[in-house]
Write a structure and sequence with these properties.
mainly alpha
Length: 322
């Protein structure tokens, strides 16, 4: 989120555009994917009652990496070259290491619904960074959508001062925002590799280095933790966050990219914050505030506007590709 989340946008997936079939099993799988990721915010928040943030994330990521590697071995495509693998491992430190570190540190300090809304605005950061790096040029309509998303994030982050968490909640929201920026940069830098490698292989390799980093960072917490005292709810939260959110949802995501294409697949990700807010309301009793709902409206409107806007590669990016 992820939490690996709706910010898995076109920048991080192959540029395939297959014919779009009628609503079917693939679409149903993408609805399930968005639901899994939306519920995951509350599940992780509940799991943090039994484990420390670093130990929770380290165990979750190591388990997910092992399972994902096992599944990726059955992919027919060749694994990336040794040179690409080395670079992907470095990218994994950014996209799965630093991102997860910032995300879990932020989620431990603020509400699950707040985290979901901030993560949902990730495509805005991708567009901004792509423009700064000279990768893409965004139309005026696209910038309007980006502006709406950032305005929504500002409403959400600013509203944390009114919560019982006080300054801690604001710090948590800012950490998650920084994590979203890290994920956006990772997505853009990963894009060239998606054109020549299987998505499962990319996920397994980048998750492996991120998991190794989190295991190292979380080692002191894991040594001090009384594992025998961890509740059943804690273990169930770890299992959900590892196997459903980081494995099953990923498999559904890549199937969607292969069958429906990246744009329509990413559209389903827009359901995630809606699910997250509803589940946090029921499961954690996080009643949305007016500012939070206003921010959600801006973010969702911005996402819809951005989806209809044209984005084209910058001339210098085309020259590099040639």
């Amino acid at each position: 989120m992820t939490s690996l989340s709706s910010s898995r946008t076109d920048a991080a997936v192959p540029n395939a555009s297959p014919a779009t079939p009628a609503f079917g099993l693939t679409d149903a799988g993408l609805v399930l994917m968005a639901t899994i990721w939306g519920v995951n915010f509350s599940v992780v928040k509940a799991g943090l009652q039994a484990l420390t943030p670093l130990s929770f994330t380290a165990v979750r990521m190591v388990l997910a990496a092992l399972v994902l590697f096992g599944i990726a071995r059955f992919a027919r495509d060749a694994w990336p070259s040794r040179r690409d693998t080395g670079r992907l491992l470095l990218l994994g430190l950014l996209g799965n290491g630093f991102y997860q570190l910032l995300f879990i540190s932020g989620l431990a300090r603020t509400r699950a619904g707040i985290a979901a809304l901030i993560v949902a605005a990730g495509p805005a950061w991708i567009a901004i960074i792509s423009r700064l790096l000279g990768r893409e040029r965004v139309s005026r309509l696209g910038w309007a959508g980006i502006g709406l998303q950032l305005l929504g994030v500002l409403c959400v982050v600013g509203s944390t001062q009114a919560f019982e968490a006080g300054e801690s909640g604001l710090l948590g929201a800012l950490l998650i925002s920084l994590g979203s920026i890290a994920w956006a940069l990772y997505s853009i830098l990963l894009q060239p590799y998606t054109l020549r490698s299987n998505g499962l292989h990319l996920s397994a390799i980048t998750l492996a280095s991120g998991a190794a980093m989190m295991a190292l960072v979380g080692m002191p917490d894991m040594v001090r933790l009384d594992w025998g005292a961890v509740s059943l709810t804690g273990w169930m939260s770890v299992a959900y966050a590892a196997f459903l959110a980081m494995v099953v949802a990923y498999l559904l995501f890549y199937r969607g990219v292969r069958v429906l294409g990246p744009t329509k697949t990413s559209m389903y990700g827009n359901l995630q914050p809606i699910v997250a807010l509803a589940v946090a309301w029921v499961m954690l009793h996080e009643t949305p505030t007016p500012w939070q709902l206003l921010g959600a409206g801006f973010i969702m409107a911005g996402l819809l506007v951005s989806r209809t806007a044209k984005v084209r590669p910058a001339p210098e990016a085309l020259e590099e590709a040639a």
